[in-house]
# Entry
Amino acid sequence: MSQLEHINGPEDLKGLNQDQLTRLAGEIRDLLIETTVRTSGHLGPNLGVVELTIAIHRVFDSPKDKIVFDTGHQAYVHKLLTGRVAQFGTLRQRGGLTGYPCQAESEHDLVENSHASTSLSYADGLAKAYTLRGEPDRTVVAVIGDGALTGGMAWEALNNIAAAKDSRLVMIVNDNGWSYQPTIGGLAEHLAAIRVSQRYENVLDYIKTTLSRAPLVGGPLYGAFHGAKKGLKDFLQPQVMFEDLGIKYVGPIDGHDERLVETALRRAKDFGEPVLVHVITRKGLGYAEAEQNTADRLHQVPAAGAAPGSWSRVFGDEMVAIGARRPDVVAITAAMLNPTGLGQFAAAYPDRVHDVGIAEQHAVTSAAGLAMAGLHPVVAIYSTFLNRAFDQTLMDVALHKLPVTLVLDRAGVTGPDGASHHGMWDGSLMQLVPGMKIAAPRDGKRVAELLNEAVEVSDGPTVVRFPKGKVGGEVEAVAKLGGMDVLREPAEGLSPDVLLAGAGVMAMTGLEVADRLAGHGIGVTVVDPRWTKPVDEALINAARQHKLVVTVEDNGRTGGFGDAVARLLRDHDVDMPVKTFGLPQEFLAHGTRDEVLDEAGLTPQHLARQITEAVARRSPGEDRETATPAPEGQPVE
Ligand SMILES: Cc1ncc(C[n+]2csc(CCOP(=O)(O)OP(=O)(O)O)c2C)c(N)n1
# Structure
């Protein structure tokens, strides 16, 4: 029987000897590789925290002690050590284990939000609460990567934690030098300098020992010696800035030496005040393919880069073309250069791309600064992470009517990363922003077209949003309606019953819906608005010529494109029912994109059924073949 099979919870770790722990670490690595290669997942980060997670669970007493994993993508080992070995094969599959901590899965899981840089704030609050509630026997542990530590929230938290001397809080900085790519910036350099300084530790130790033995203590020579020692230390080993902030610092520790990590954590636990433990690990350790991968250390399998034929790649290619023509166009990424497709732009114009770290808020306001100085920044981020920078978009960019283009990759349902990764908020949030223009390309050709239009806008911000995955086939307009593309007129012999406006890729779904409805004798005009904000006023007259308006979007239903269309028609006294189809305003579980869309009723089949029923209700006298009723649980308005 393997070592891992004996682990049903953290208590089973406590009696193991060092040999058994080493065997266990090996078995965990084998299982991580075997599973994620099949299911997809965050392989590199988890391979790097095997010994660290074992040590955490041996030193602390979860769930009494609370463990918060920053981002949570590195919590697979924690899952394995807390009784989920048997289910691990279902990782990231519909109905299976989630790719992040999940309270429904285990009492050992706490923070499910996979947006980075929050752990120290959660931990600060938890520790303060336990102090206030008189529960001093609990310790709160936060595990944060050097990448996540570049986010502003982490620094806001550190500022507070430094003053919270009563908090029993252990912050573990898991420093592997990498985010998706090497972590950049002053902090990364500081951590690197501390790492390098390890080599001089012996010299410093020698000086320290010599001084303590010197018979000159208290004399003038001692002062000179002491000054020289400090100077040498500053020269050889930079001041650890956490200490300068007033936070106790332990490290750097070799994060793959389980015994050493345990010793450091026990010291930190006993200290009784906030302590930061700096652990050095190697992302991808134990899997040559990951360790030697110079692109991203297999941060994720399959890789999150802009694969040929993906929306990200089409965007990236067009950025290179725009960059050649427009020297004022610059690009910003928040630690996701390759995943967002900006890699080629960076290669072509290295001075015109800024990786700001996991710092979406700074990215947007920094873009505002670039725009104020006459450039046109393109900020490429995943849709879900734009939530972070809403105020920056609203007040720092839009209020000043600055020409900043936000390119939102992974907009809509993303799939196996679950609730926190679906890009289903931006379409509503951006509708709130005065002066914002939102483009939603339906196919690859429109990505290029709309991106070019967006960077031409000089009097305010623009958004270009597109989904995850591969672009599909291209469809040309059969006519124009204002600035919109008409993709399909009602089939021959059918009256214009339904005006269907599908935002972005949902325009393509609309075409399939139209085919199905034609089979039921329902005539459909399918339009692609191209720009979902402002809503094209040509829709007003077009609506009057139909009996029902339908909108379909890959975004939450509340406050998105559909609501904007309904409001436009109401404002113009168009007495026309508008059925708005989109994602239910809920936290949607993980699954494939198709599975999630199916459950949300956003497939051609579901949509056609509901529209057929709505048309039948509108014209009860007409003899139309009605479809079977919607299954229970489907939203029927
Ligand atoms: C707010 C936010 N922006 C971007 C991401 C995407 N992201 C996930 S993990 C990661 C890198 C994390 O690096 P680090 O914290 O050092 O952890 P490691 O994977 O190296 O262990 C990024 C950028 C995110 N999760 N949250």
Remarks:
- Residues 45, 71, 73-74, 114-116, 145-148, 174, 176, 178-180, 183, 283, 299, 334-336, 358, 360, 385, 388 surround thiamine diphosphate (CB under 6 Å).
- The radius of gyration is 28 Å.
